[in-house]
Amino acid sequence: MANTGIITLPLLEIAATSVRPAPEYLGLAMRLNNLAVSQYCRYDFDSMDKFGDMYLGAGEEGLFTLEDAETDDGLDINAVVEFPTTDFGISHQKRIRSLHVGYETSGDLTVTINCDDDDEKEYTLAPINTSNNQHGGKVKINREQKGRYWTFRFENVDGADFSLNMIEAIATILARKPSGN
After folding, report:
1. Where in the chain is the domain with CATH 2.60.120.260?
2. Which of 12, 14, 98, 145 gets the highest tally of CB atoms within 10 A of its CB?
3. Per CATH, which fold does 80-173 belong to?
4. Residues pairing with 86 in the sheet
5. Whole-model pTM?
6. What confidence score (pLDDT) does residue 99 get?
């Protein structure tokens, strides 16, 4: 909703428009058996429920099933998993040589590796087989990155469906601890 106003003075005319931004919705869900929390952005629902085998979302626009669509009203569904930053329990600098990933996907995944919050590289993890079954893959990492703290992020490309069940980082521990920058 926009409000418009015009003020006219003898030598000056001022026009202004105010626009109220669309609200951002954030949904949180917690699995009680392992206390894992999932975050859902822009879910315009005030309640969610599992009814039989269906997941439902309810809001001002009505009641919607959540699992029967490959798209969100014709748009790709973007999904991101970002793991907490880690130093692997070792204070020395390190290089990540490769990532071994257990996963399944219907399309490509973008793997972003961030080192010490300032050196970020992207890699592509493609599906190995077309049956969308669990399989293993390897991401070869270049030798340019080194640091103490590492963050790993997985993001679908073009709305690809994916799941991860294992990530193993193969690291080379460097002889020196990081200097105090």
Report:
1. 80-173
2. 145
3. Jelly Rolls (2.60.120)
4. 150
5. 0.67
6. 94
